Amino acid sequence: MIVNADNLIATVQRMADEDAIERVLYTYAFHLDAAEPQGMLPLFTEDLYVSYGNHGASGAEAYLHTLANPDTGIAAFFAGTSHHVSNVVIDFVDENTANVRSVLLAWHKYNRERPNGIVYGRYHDVFVRTDEGWKITRREQQTAGTDNYHARPEKMLMIDRSSREQSGE
Amino acid sequence: MIVNADNLIATVQRMADEDAIERVLYTYAFHLDAAEPQGMLPLFTEDLYVSYGNHGASGAEAYLHTLANPDTGIAAFFAGTSHHVSNVVIDFVDENTANVRSVLLAWHKYNRERPNGIVYGRYHDVFVRTDEGWKITRREQQTAGTDNYHARPEKMLMIDRSSREQSGE
Amino acid sequence: MIVNADNLIATVQRMADEDAIERVLYTYAFHLDAAEPQGMLPLFTEDLYVSYGNHGASGAEAYLHTLANPDTGIAAFFAGTSHHVSNVVIDFVDENTANVRSVLLAWHKYNRERPNGIVYGRYHDVFVRTDEGWKITRREQQTAGTDNYHARPEKMLMIDRSSREQSGE
Fold first, then answer.
1. Angle at C77 between CA C71 and CA C82, to 5 degrees
2. In sequence order, what are the beta bridge partners of B48?
3. Cβ atoms within 10 Å of A90's Cβ, excluding its own
């Protein structure tokens, strides 16, 4: 595109929105790796829908339960994690909604004795602009594959390698 | 740099170009990981030159043959891949040409029974602005190293660790 | 945020600063992976402070000694490295100072015979604007965990998974 006086403010607005959306992606990873579910909730809308294939959540309360559950939550299961998010591609549907795709490498150290596990995959998110800034209203995690991860591929939503189009694309 | 009324439009133009170039890098990875060679071709100019050390291609037709070959192409060789592109540095040579450097972690699951392989390396690209947007006209993949990857280092273009300057720098 | 004629130049200035800061992060990784300590020094202020937990440096001369030492420096210890930096979050303290957080995956091939080692962690940096551009004046590396890395966790600064706030946040 060619930037000129007519589209200047709209172009910079789009870039500021992209910056804000990326920051949400990275802040999510930050709080997840710090095992702080309470810090993750404000990044989502109240009516969020999150799907990881073998599990998920509808609504903030259910999602917090998934993340913070003393038996199966982040801190209960993992001694440490590291979420590396890259390849962020943002498509605005309208000025208050965006489809966002990113690539994830998620390393996990377990509390129990077993090799560290890695998930290679993608987030397909829908973001909406709210009075408190951009938030995730829908997140689907698709998996390319794993190394030594506890969840088996058939329990995950695997990336389709034959179709021409992907959800979120 | 200090942004002011005189350089404002040129600064935003450069940022818009950077956004567009990054998007090409990530769209390449997206279609590669989906095993869709047809989606990768529009990201390159017709006269592309691609080098991975032990193999490469000159021109779109040869490149498509490399990617889509039923015996040795992406889908023939790999059951899944995940390409993580980061550390993107863009140097504009002129307003229609840019040298672009990025860092790659490429995970590969093989169709045959063997451990998953990882390549750690870099893309050194030359981008040109076309009527259809920014495209890659030259891509050289340099390799820092591998874990369990099938290709041996002597068949790859290894990153030079002694010289002061690197190609594309 | 809403971009308008009043905040336009300040918004673009902030984005240009963010671009420049990210470029320093990636240039650091580039020269580190090329085993070129001399190329890393200009990215830091003279009075730099760097901490990796089990070792560190105060001042440019001490840091160069750490990096270039023929017995324990980068080239002495590693046959190759690959530093993947993502999840960059920048908070401006004032127009000439920024707290910068990023996520790191650092792969290492050793000169001696042992498995390749990976560090998963974060950089918490303080950047300052100088006459020669943005530079790092303070860098602390926090570690989420490792795979086959030679340094033991108790020698590293591990990411706190219980506290609500992290340094640099």
1. 145
2. none
3. 19
Q: How far is B162 from chain A (nearest CA, A)?
A: 29
Q: Mean pLDDT, chain A, as a whole number?
A: 92
**A134 lies in which domain range?**
8-155
Put simply, the answer to whether B29 touches A103 (Cβ < 8 Å) is yes
Q: Which of C1, C2, C3, C7 to mutate to test the interface with A (most CBs of A within 10 A)?
A: C3
pLDDT tens-digit profile of C62-121?
999 989 988 878 889 999 999 999 999 999 999 999 999 999 999 999 999 999 999 999
Record the tokens describing residue B75, joined without a space: 């889908």
Helix ranges (H only) for chain C are 8-33, 37-40, 60-68, 74-77
Is C60 domain-assigned? Answer: yes
Cβ-defined contacts of C154-162 (< 8 Å, 24+): C155/C53, C155/C54, C156/C52, C156/C53, C156/C54, C157/C51, C157/C52, C157/C53, C158/A80, C158/C53, C159/A33, C159/A34, C159/A80, C159/C121, C159/C122, C160/A34, C161/A33, C161/A34, C161/A35, C161/A75, C161/A80, C162/A35
Residue A137 domain-assigned?
yes
Any chain B CB within 8 A of the CB of C147?
Answer: no
Select the more confidently predicted residue: B70 or C93.
Answer: C93
**Substitution target from C14, C17, C30 for chain B, most B beta carbons within 10 A:** C30
- Check if B29 contacts A (Cβ < 8 Å): yes
What's the Rg (C-alpha) of chain C?
17
- Taking CA–CA distances from C7, the nearest residue in chain A reads A9
pTM of the model: 0.95
Q: Count of domains in chain A?
A: 1
pLDDT digits (tens, 9 = 90+) for B105-163: 999 999 999 999 999 999 999 999 999 999 999 999 999 999 999 988 778 999 988 54
Confirm if B72 and B54 have CB atoms less than 8 A apart: no
ipTM, interface predicted TM-score of the complex: 0.93
Q: Residue A51 maps to which CATH number?
A: 3.10.450.50
Question: Strand B133-147's sheet: what is its strand order?
Answer: B56-58, B44-51, B133-147, B117-130, B97-110, B78-94
Instruction: Compute the nearest-CA separation of B68 from chain C (Å).
Output: 29
In a domain, B163, yes or no: no
**Min distance C47 CA to chain B CA atoms (Å):** 23
DSSP secondary structure of B55-66:
-EEESHHHHHHH
Q: Are strands A133-147 and A44-51 parallel, antiparallel or unpaired?
A: parallel
Interface contact C160, partner A, CB < 8 A: yes
B77 touches chain A (CB under 8 A): no
Q: Which residues of B touch A107 (CB under 8 A)?
A: none
Task: Tell me if C73 sits within 8 A of C40, measured CB to CB.
Answer: no
In a domain, A168, yes or no: no
